[in-house]
Amino acid sequence: MKAAEIMAQLQAKHAEEKEFLQAAEEVLISIEDIYNQHPEFEKARIVERIVEPDRIFTFRVAWVDDKGDVQVNLGYRVQFNSAIGPYKGGLRFHPKVNLSMLKFLGFEQIFKNSLTTLPMGGAKGGADFDPVGKSDGEIMRFCQAFMTELWKCIGPDTDVPAGDVGVGGREIGYMYGMYKKLAREYNTGVLTGKGATWGGSILRPEATGYGALYFLENLLKEAGKDIKGKKIALSGFGNVAWGAAKKTNELGGQVVAISGPDGVCEIIDGITDEMIDYMLVMRSSNRNKVQDMADKFPAKAKFTAGKKAWSVKCDIALPCAFQNELSEDDAKELVANGCWCCCEVSNMGCQPGAIKYFQSNKVYFAPGKAVNAGGVATSGLEMTQNAAHLGWAGEEVDAKLHFIMKSIHEACVKYGRQADGTIDYVKGANIAGFMKVATAMVEQGVL
Q1: Annotated catalytic residue: which of 103, 124, 231, 427?
Q2: Is-above-0.85 flag for pTM?
């Protein structure tokens, strides 16, 4: 297999799908050498098969807004690969959602889910619906209309969606309610990220952020460093950034910045627990303005319009918002300001130029498929609890999450260790995730 040849074929077929092509190229370059050491992979055409989804569902979502007007959106579900388990991946509601975005996310999900050690395949879905400024009633009606189209494509042993950008516990609740009505069964295992009183797992809302900090702890330990006292910049203020901020405080770090589409809040003395709680209020308001934090806590937070979190001096940068949110120029600004570590908590949060700049300047860097896998891992734990019709205490879930993130870090180190002793976490994560899926595909025959 030659990565360049496969990429040329993909570009010819999917020229408009920029995000998907970016994700595919990163993986193919990383795995090229080890792939060519396994003739059984080449014979079974594993790469040619793994880069194409098993199937894609596209559907119209018609719903009625508060004015009584009919609105129409596009919904999608990309079921990418089920070699090691049922399809598993979030649903994203955002006006920029398109097929390229969901294919990139579903492709990344294959390897992320493989890294978790749990039996889950890769998928992603969503709609170009914008929840910002929508009333609770409008969000409910949209979620119900969306599930009316999706419900026949999913199931606890078929495809298990979860939340993502624009989809939290409220949205999962509305979608599950409609699924239950349509399917006429109370099967809690069909969605994850559910409410605690009806099948949800303790720690699921915090899991992506918590898991990212557990991975960061392992990375720093490997490097002979510690998180205590380190200044950390976060992008976003949704569930992921909220969980990361909570765990940072618990571990002794200091969050000095959070950001939103309107600008950045610099928090010179570090975010407080009260401010972290207020992040949930900001998220549920549907205003999507980080300035609300500075307005609420003017003595502690300084808002600057139009700036990113990466403009604030920090030791560690944690992109927590959206793909490609951190550019090469942002990376240069971070390094110039003394940043020496960046871990993607968002999916493909850094542009290729930023990753190359970090790596060439000896900045510790780890990709989202490894760093943020704690979210889907805890979703997998929720599926296990649902299948057994029981619930685990928070301590048990947290212990399993610790173990999974430690295992992911060890796998990255195993496959990413370079001749000079340094660790290429991008290569390590991609190879570790790929090998498990590729082996399963070979053993199951050509499908």
Answers
A1: 124
A2: yes
